[in-house]
Automatic annotation (TrEMBL):
Localization in the cell: Cell outer membrane
Name of the protein in question: TonB-dependent receptor
Organism ancestry: Bacteria, Pseudomonadati, Pseudomonadota, Gammaproteobacteria, Cellvibrionales
Pfam families registered for this protein in UniProt: Plug (PF07715), TonB_dep_Rec_b-barrel (PF00593)
Membrane topology: Multi-pass membrane protein
UniProt keyword annotation of Metal-binding present: no
TonB-dependent receptor-like beta-barrel domain span: 287-784
Signal peptide: 1-29
Amino acid sequence: MISTITRSKGFYLKALSAGILAASGSVLAQAPAGQAKTETLTLEEVLVSARRTEEGAQSVPVTVDVLDANGLREATIVSTTDLQQAVPGIFLGGSGGPQNPLYVIRGQSKGLIGTTSPAVVSYYAEVPQPSWGSAVPQYDMDNIQVLKGPQGTLFGRNTTGGAILYSPTTPLHELSGYVDATLGRYNQRRLQGAANIPLIQDKVAMRVAADLHRREGYVKNIGEGGDLDGVDTRAFRLSLLADFNRLRNIFIYDEFSSDNDGFNIHPVTVYEPSGLNQLGIADDVKADVARLKAFGPRVNDSAFNQHERNDRTTVVNRTEFEFNDNLSLLNIFGYQLTDLDYAPNIDGLGLYKSPVVEQGLMAAFGPTFKDSQTSIVKARLIDKTKQISNELQLRGNAFENRLDWLVGAFYLKNEPDEIGQINATTVFQTRYETTIPGMEVGYTNGGAQHFFLTDESRAVFAHGEYDLTEALALEVGVRYTEDEFELCLGSDKKPQWLASDPTYFDEGACRSGDASVIVNSAVVKDSSDAVTWSVGLNWQATDDVFAYGVVRHGYRAGGANGPIFSGDLKNYQTFTAEEVDDFEIGVKADWHVNDIPVRTNVSYFYGEYTNAQGDLAGGVTTARNCTPTGSAQPGVDPDGDCSAANDPTGGAIVLNVGDTSVSGVDMAVSARLTKGLTVSLNATVQDADVDKVYKQENSYIDAKIGGVIPFLYFTNSVIQSNVNYSVPMDNIADELSLNLNYYKTSAADKGDTDIPAYDLINLRADLYRVASTNIDVGVFINNVNDEEYAISSSISSRALGLDSFVFGPPRLFGVDVRYTF
C-alpha cells in the first residue's frame, strides 16, 4: 500500500520496469528494418488524436488506451464507471453518485469537496467538461481515449494526472444508421439509434442520435423511498457537418437527462473511540451495521427519500480552415449548462436518539422538550452552473515538412446559473421537537452552504516537433496559464434537515449579506499562474518499433473551502496550486514470434508533486465538553469556537499537504494467436510516497495530517485482460465474436481506510449479420460470479467513527439486437 513519509519507490517496481524495458530491447533485435514477413496475420492499427491530430497510436509519445465504437460495444460499456474495467490504471468510482464521476489517474484526482480544479479532465468533442456532473452518456461514440500523465500543452485545461477524450460519431455523407434495442435483468430496457442524413451531397450532412435507458434498481430499499441504483436516462444529439473545400465545420447540440431514486451506500465498519461514543450512540450504530451486514450490500435502509438528477445541455462548434497545404486554423467553441441535484444517505444509516444530546435539550427546554432525532452524516448537493470555452489554434509545417508547429490560445469561464452550488452536508445534526409555540421544531445545526463561484482560465501555448533525422524527432511544448476565481460563500439562515429543500437566494443576496436569508457570508478571491512545458525525443527505430522519452512540468490551480472560516481555520480558506515534474519513457513495438503478430507497449513514469493537494476528513467539533479557547484543540475543535455551525462543509477541507511522488509501469501486450483468436493483457503497477509533510499552523490539523494521504483511490496494481475469438458461422451469421474480459484491482486507498481488492469477469457473444441480414445479436453477462465488491467510499473517517462504501452492480445480463441500414 502507500508508504507515508518515506521516499522508497519499492524494489519490486524498479526491478519490474528494468526487466520490461530490457525485454523491449530484445524486441528491437527481433524486428530489424526491411525484414521480410511471410505471415498473413496482422494486428489492427489504432488511430488516436492524443496530439490534436489523427495518427497511429503506435507512434504517439504518450501512454494512451483506446476503445473504438466496436470495442465499446463488445465490452458492454454503457456508463462512465464501466470504462474502469476496460482500461487499467484509472479509477472511476464516482463522487456523490454515477452522474458525478471522480476520475483518478496515477494517483491524481479532484478534491471531494470545495472548489477544486480536477487533476484529470474529461473532454467531450475536445471541449473540457465541468468539474461537477460531468458524466458523459455512452452512446454513439466513435471512440474513447485515455491519456495518462500531465497534460496541458495541447489540451484545454492544465492537468497533473491525465485526460479522457470522448469523441461522438461524426456525420457521414450517406444515408445510413442503426437502431439498437437491449433487454436485460432488473427490467432493463434500452433503445438507441442514429441516422446520417445527407443534405447537400458531399457538402452538408446531419446525424441525429438518441438513447433511452431504463432499469429498475438492483438494491432493495427497506427504508424511505424507492429501490436504489436504477437507471432512467434520456439523451439526444444533433450533429451538422459542413464541408466546403478548405472549410470544414461541425456543430453539435447535445441534451442529457438522468433521474433516479439514488444510489446505494452501505456501512461496513464502526470505529471506537470516536464521535459516536461522544454522542452515546456507538452501540446503536454497531447494531445497525451488523443488521445491514446480515442483509448484504444490496439491501439498504434509507433514512429519507433519496434522489439523483442531472440535466445537461452542451453546444460544440468546431471550425477548421486550410489556408494552404502548410497552414490551417482551428477554433473549438463550447457551451455547457449543468443542473445537478442529488441527495445521498451518505452514512448509509438511519436516525438515532442520542442520550447526550437529549440531556442537553432537556436541560435547555425542561418539560417543553418532546423528542429528538440525530443523524451522523446526511447530504444534498445542488449545482447549477454554465460554462463557456474557446480554443484557437494555428498550425502548420515548415523547413520542407521537417517541422510541425502549433500555436494557440484557450479561454474558459464557469459561473453560477441562478443559484450556483448548494452543499447541504450535515454532520451530527439533531432535529428536536418542543411544545413551545413558534418553536415546535428546531435544529442543532445544518444550514446549507452556498457557493457562487466564477472560475476563469486563460492560456497561450506553442508546440512543435522537428525531425532531427529521418528516425529521430525533438518535440517541445510550452504553455502559460492564468487561473483566477471569485467566490461568494454563505450559509443558510434556515437550517437544512436531511434532503429537504434549502433556501434559494441569488448571488446578489450573498454579496450583500442579506440577513433575512443568509449568515456568515463573504467574498473570497484568489489567482495563480504557471509556465508549464514538455520536452521529448521520439525515435522511430524501425517501421514497427517506436521509442520515446519526455520530461514535463505540469500544474493545476488552487481553490477554496467553505463556509467562511474563523479563528485558527482562517488560513485554510484557500489552498494554493499544485505542480508536478514528471518524466516518462516508453517503447511501442509490433513484432512476430514465428508467424504470430505480437504488440508490446511499455512505459515507465515518475512524477514529483509539490504543494500536493489532499483531503482532510473529520474536521468537525465532536467533543460535547468543548470549552471555547479561541485556538484549535487537537481531536476536539478545528477553529477554537466549539461551534459546529461554521466547521468545514461535510467535515472536510482541501489543503496543501506536502511533497509527494508517484512512479510506475504501464504495459499492454496483445497477440493474434490464430486468425480468429486474439488475446491481450494490460496492467498498471505503481507506487506512491509522501516525501515531505508540511508543518501546519493549526494544531488540530497538524495532529491529523499524518493520516492524510493526498491520493484518493490509489491502487498499487490493476490488471485487465481480454480474449476474443471470432469464427465464421456460414449460413447462420457472417461471424460469431466471443469476448471474455477479466479485471483485477488491488485495494484502493482513501483517507484512513482501504477499498478492498476485487476481480470481475464479463462475457459477451455477438452474431454479426444474422442469416445474411443487417441484424446483429449480442448476449452479455457482466460480473459473471456475482461478486459483492465496493467501488468507492462514501464515508471514511475514524474521527466520525464510520466507514461506508458504495458497492458495484450484481450479475447483470441481457440481449442486444441491432439493425444497421
